[in-house]
Amino acid sequence: MCGVFGYIGIRNPLEVCLSGLEKLEYRGYDSSGIGGIFEGQIVLCKKAGKLSALKNSIQLPQISLAIAHTRWATHGKVNDENAHPHLDFTQSIALIHNGIIENYKELKNDLLKEGITFSSDTDTEVIANLIAKYYEGDLVQALNATLSQLKGIFALVVIHKDHPDQIIAAARDCPLSIGYSDQEDESLISSDPNAFEESNYNIVFLKDDEIAKVQKKSIKIYNKNLDIISKKIERLEIDIRPPSKEGFEHYMLKEIFEQPLTIKKALLGRYDEDIFFEELKLSTDVLKKIKNLWILGCGTSSHAGRIASLLVEDWARLPSSVEIASEARYRNPLISEETLIVAISQSGETADTLAALKETKKYHCPNLGICNVKNSTLARETDGVILLKAGPEISVCSTKAFTSQIAVLTLFSLYLARLHNQLSKSQVKTIFEELQEIPKHIETVLNQLPTIQAIAKKYAKFEHFFFMGRGYMLPTAMEAALKLKEISYVNANAYPAGELKHGPIALLHSQFPVVAFCAHKKTRDKIISNLTEVKARGSPVLAIAPSDDSEIKEIADDVIYVPKTRDELAPFSSSVVGQLFAYFIAKERGCDIDQPRNLAKSVTVE
Ligand code: AGP
């Protein structure tokens, strides 16, 4: 998982590539590098650390083309040597790579036996050397021979010192787009077309081991037999506005504050006496026939899926199961043409989610994508899609995408409930009106920022937390715990509140706080009992509770109040409290909030 970018054309390749890498840094920021050809030699500059480290140190001569990479380490430590591009042993070929070569060890052993030496720990260097081994003057042919040796999923971009007029690219189950201009002599390659600087490019997506020979004025695509093939050319609307923090200290805080607006956008144009989705290509006939749902996602998106599963059960009365995508793809699921697959992904590029979705295709299930990035692989590869319309989410820690996911999933659950005759028009109207109140509820939470900050400051010293909840508050607690873990590096586990006494309660003591999400009315009395149980073990207790619950402050050490609403809509406000709590703890602990260690915004490897 990494970002790859390439440029050949009339502009300065170095500048274009650095700007492309900025937009791809969400795919990894362990190291970055750029390579090109100068006077018949490969020249490189690569640096461990964020892109700013490369920018500060880059010194390259006037190169004719460039390939560039931002890395999330899979094989080998984060250091300059393991940064891409990688060279073959003759230093004739430079290669950048996104993905994993599963059989790289055996390939490397074979090459070692042939006397080839390596200077990095990466699987990438093996590919560069294989291409060199097969090279007899034609880079496309050498790459094609190499592809047949490789197992795994990947996107590759290659240059050769003897071919300063071409960049060669190939992809297997990994996004890779080629853009070319009608007006200018230039062509670009990117893991994500949204990294192209303008929206007037003709774009083709490579797949199934297709190879592209990319030149200033032409692009040729070859299939596995090396026949030149014609591909669908797409024109995509690309948002070229540079991201801005708009005065906020971090993107995360800006995105938290955007939520009243992003939720309004998620609801806008989707209700007119009944729920409807303009862009949803799935027919009502198909949706009426479904008997169950299989919901797929990772991390935050899987938590949104858990909420959706409860909503679909409560309102549409359809059974559903939520699967972590990395597990789902290796299951033997009981799904059929009557199962709706719902794949949830902010980025639409998460490898596990895409792979799980692909697995389900053999069962001929209809599928639906819930996605924020409209040109993403998920949005293109699902039968139907509902877009979040939340705008780019830059902070690695997902906030506004989560609440937009639950907003559109709430609408979709109501839509299914109508199609399956489980709710009347007037019931849906009432719920929709309450949903429209949510942005105001979130503003109420945001107005409590000083209180939440002060409470977070008090809790920032602890190294371990339990987060607990019941019903709709369980996925809310899971999401809040994930926020805390990923940006503060604090151990936070989420449990169903009733489950603590079956083991985990043994861990509790005065230095082990419990954060309890109490806004699920149906189980309110039960969670009060659970709170008294943890209080009796000496744990500090922070409760997030509805504003009309006056009793909770008698038990909890601290309470953050949220506006009261029906149980099904309670995750919104409580989640925003969880986001702010994690944000201020991370800030207090001096963490890198927008780009936490070891993470990337989009996880494009398994
Ligand atoms: C959330 O804060 C995370 N950074 C992470 O769990 C994320 O939600 C997950 O990787 C899935 O990403 P996606 O929604 O883009 O598929």
Summarize the structure in words.
The protein has 606 residues and is α/β, with parallel strands linked by helices. It folds into 3 domains: 3-235, Aminohydrolase, N-terminal nucleophile (Ntn) domain (Glutamine Phosphoribosylpyrophosphate, subunit 1, domain 1); 246-436, Glucose-6-phosphate isomerase like protein, domain 1 (Rossmann fold, 3-Layer(aba) Sandwich); 440-599, Rossmann fold. Helix content is 35%, strand content 22%. It has 20 helices and 24 strands. The protein has a 7-stranded antiparallel sheet with strand order 3-2-4-1-10-9-11. α7 (259-267) runs parallel beside α13, α9 (299-316) packs antiparallel against α17 (473-488) and α15 (438-446) runs parallel beside α20 (571-588). 2-deoxy-2-amino glucitol-6-phosphate is lined by residues 298-301, 345-347, 350, 353, 396-398, 486, 602-603.
Q: What secondary-structure arrangement, pairings included, does this model have?
A:
Layout: E1 2-9, H1 13-24, E2 31-38, E3 41-48, H2 51-57, E4 65-71, E5 86-87, E6 93-101, H3 104-113, H4 124-134, H5 139-147, E7 152-160, E8 167-172, E9 177-180, E10 186-190, E11 202-205, E12 210-214, E13 219-222, E14 228-229, H6 251-257, H7 259-267, H8 284-289, E15 292-297, H9 299-316, E16 320-324, H10 325-328, E17 339-345, H11 351-360, E18 367-371, H12 377-381, E19 384-387, H13 400-419, H14 425-436, H15 438-446, H16 449-459, E20 464-469, H17 473-488, E21 491-496, E22 514-517, H18 524-536, E23 541-546, H19 552-555, E24 558-562, H20 571-588
Parallel strand pairs: 15-16, 15-17, 17-18, 18-19, 20-21, 20-22, 22-23, 23-24
Antiparallel strand pairs: 1-4, 1-10, 2-3, 2-4, 5-6, 6-7, 7-8, 8-12, 9-10, 9-11, 12-13, 13-14
Helix pairs in contact: 3-4, 4-5, 7-13, 7-15, 9-13, 9-17, 13-14, 15-20, 16-20, 17-20
The protein binds 2-deoxy-2-amino glucitol-6-phosphate.
